[in-house]
Amino acid sequence: MTRDERNILELLEDELDFIEKGGYGRSVRTPWLGKSTFQDSLSCINYGYPYRAHPCNECHLLYFVSPEDRAQRVPCHFIPLNIDGETIEDLELQDNQAKLEREVSRWLRARIKEIEEERTAHAAV
User: Fold this and answer.
1) What is the CA radius of gyration of the chain?
2) Which domain holds residue 30?
3) CA angle at residue 38 from 34 to 42, to 5 degrees?
4) Which end of the chain is more exposed for a tag (fewer CB within 10 A), N or C?
5) How many Cα neighbours within 13 Å face the side chain of 48?
6) Following CA atoms 100, 106, 108, 113 in sequence, which dihedral angle do they give, to the nearest 10 degrees?
7) What is the pLDDT of residues 47-93, one digit of tens each?
8) Domain count, the chain
9) CA separation for the pair 75, 5 (Å, rounded)
10) Quick check: is 41 in a domain?
């Protein structure tokens, strides 16, 4: 099994930047198409492929998915985002894009901070 060779910190930072710049929002230049968090951004290992070229178990985001949800069709949609355990899947069902993006952004900031602190501590050793 190959692994995603991208830097996880850069991947999460890019996803946060994508969301903050309105990446999942509606564009006046293109027809409205539903967007799928993580899948329709550069953080997805399969972004830009017309078919799934890589299995999801090659992606860094799988580390954040509980073992029982790793077999889901889109496992990254089952990452617990907040203290209530809400996932992208849960939030998409609520049909509240602003809340979804707010929770994903919070989750991304927290993971970025954890990784930076871990790397700083590891570098100090």
Assistant:
1) 15
2) 8-124
3) 105
4) C
5) 3
6) 180
7) 777 677 888 888 889 999 999 999 999 999 999 999 999 999 999 99
8) 1
9) 19
10) yes
